[in-house]
Amino acid sequence: MKLFILFIVFFICFNCNAQLIIDSTVVKKYNEAYLKIKKEYRDNIDSFSSHKEYKQLVKSLVFFTEYKTDTLNIEDYKRAEYDNIKIGIGDIFIDSAGIMVPAKIDSTRYLSEEERSIYLPILLCGGTIYKDTLMIGVGLWGGFTNKIIDGKVFSFYQTDYDKYDSVYSFILEGRKFQRITVNTTTVRLTINTSNYKIGETIYGEAELQTDPFYYFKPYFFKNGYIKQRFRIKYFFKLELVAPPSEIHF
Length: 249
Prior knowledge:
The protein has 249 residues and is mostly beta strands. The protein has one domain. Helices cover 14% and strands 37% of the residues. The chain is built from five helices and 15 strands. Strands 1, 2, 3, 6, 7, 8, 9, 10, 11, 12, 13, 14 and 15 form a 13-stranded mixed sheet that branches. It is globular.
């Protein structure tokens, strides 16, 4: 299902905003960064590797060095009324990419300097090749996708799907949707090889930033919406798989 979600956005195109960088040393950087992951996380990953039913999961692994949400209308936050309320589970918020990150009451989620040195892993990613296009996806029902054609990178972010309400919009007074696909700037995308094939593993690192968008289901904002954008940095490895047979291009 994860890969199905990746491929339904195969035809989505935005303006190219980066050139793919090929650098074999990113494998070394990935391995060095992986060793900085908190040991308990690495132990969990190793246990998956030895489990028959789950070892396929860790063939594709992403971990973040930065995952931020910028709240661009923070002045609308009703501080006095909600200062004692915790967001998420305790001080932890599970964001739309499926990763647990610390949460501040002002809705700006961030990694502290100490946490940036540990990294937080996520096992949800995927990649495939179709003709001249390489796709790299990070996330579950929503998430980030890089679409690479002839060395040019097109990136976008797809929000979670809200089953009951239309809660997302590109502009404040615009039409609302249950899910939107947000243009994303690729600050940097590096992979270790240009000779990628189905069944092989590629390594890389990325830095992305979404355009601002609106969310109309907040609890603590006086005007009934949050204007936000995401900024992320991460390392990844992924085993390239064939497109699902039920997808017709």
